[in-house]
Amino acid sequence: MSAALTQSATRTLTQSEIALLDLFVTKARYIWTREARDPPYSPSGEQRAFRKTFSYPSDKGAPSHVTLLVAGDDYFAMYVNGVLVQPADTHHKWDQILAFDVPLPVVQPNSTSSVDDANLVIGFRGVNLKDFAGIAVAAQVEYESAAAPDVFYTGSDQSWLGEKLFQEQWEQPSFNRNGRQQAGGATWDPAVVYSQDARREGNVRMVREEVMVFDRLPSNAAVSSGPRMDSASSSPRSLVGLSKGEFAGLYVGSLVLVAVISALVSWFITKRKVRVVRVRRKATGDLNLQSAGIYQPPTLPGMKVYDRQSRSDTPASSG
């Protein structure tokens, strides 16, 4: 089983995080992928993937942790640098803001590990149950040097990317979104940013003003990999994401299966007809067979069965 970060504690918001919460409420916007329907509506029972890459400034030194404020409609899974932080929680309330304190780097580095220490990659898999769909995020990156933190949020620019069809490893820092062989023609375009008034009825709020604190993974931990999904299903793999060879094999296999089923059905029907003929022959002893499995009844509808016999049996009149 792939590793994920473990929550070790909860704590109250710091002053800078209170300011981040205010920014989230006043400036952060919901984002989603472009759909056939006008925002903020999306097909029910579908999910989308989102990526944000933030490059650390070279003059601030190593990052220490990132605080993330997130609201998801209806629920979401969250990854930081390819590691699962928040599993998809079907009990999540769309109007609640959750806060996460994630260490950076998320995996303890060692002499043999290759860690991307220049970028922060945040991934979300958002699931929509009905109608309104969106993810809203505000993030604050802090540094070991005590330099001023960096803040970014959804809707501030077009650096948040979204996709309906997403492949294995989509949440990993090494994922190449410009690769030639993207499943179903995935393009990872900038996410659609909702306007300020595109909100669901009711206020999004932080029910408990506390932050979930997570521990760093050991260097030998296996990094979690997000599932490969299509736009219309929660199934880990879809026909849309199949390669040409896989699709051809599936198509040929389907034809063979249909042929076998048709042959079995035909054999069963023929056997049943022959059996019916034999049973009826035993019962009547007078069947006029025209061809195998088909018979002609001795009389036709409307024909008097005993008319001819009754006339032949009538004694001739005397005189």
Task: Explain this structure.
With 319 residues, this protein is α+β, with helices and mostly antiparallel strands. The protein contains 3 helices and 16 strands. It has 2 domains: 7-238, Galactose-binding domain-like (Jelly Rolls); 246-312, no CATH class. It has helices at 15-26, 244-284, 307-312, and strands spanning 7-12, 31-32, 46-55, 63-73, 75-80, 83-86, 98-103, 119-128, 134-143, 150-153, 160-163, 189-190, 192-193, 210-214, 288-291, 294-296. Mean pLDDT is 79; it is low at 229-242 and 284-314. The strands form 4 sheets. It has a 6-stranded mixed beta sheet with strand order 1-14-7-4-9-10, with helices on one face. Strands 6-5-8-3-11-12 form a 6-stranded antiparallel beta sheet, with no helix packed on it. A two-stranded antiparallel sheet has the order 2-13. Strand 5 and strand 6 (83-86) form a beta hairpin. The longest helix is centred in the last third of the chain and has 41 residues, at 244-284.
Topology:
Layout: E1 7-12, H1 15-26, E2 31-32, E3 46-55, E4 63-73, E5 75-80, E6 83-86, E7 98-103, E8 119-128, E9 134-143, E10 150-153, E11 160-163, E12 189-190, E13 192-193, E14 210-214, H2 244-284, E15 288-291, E16 294-296, H3 307-312
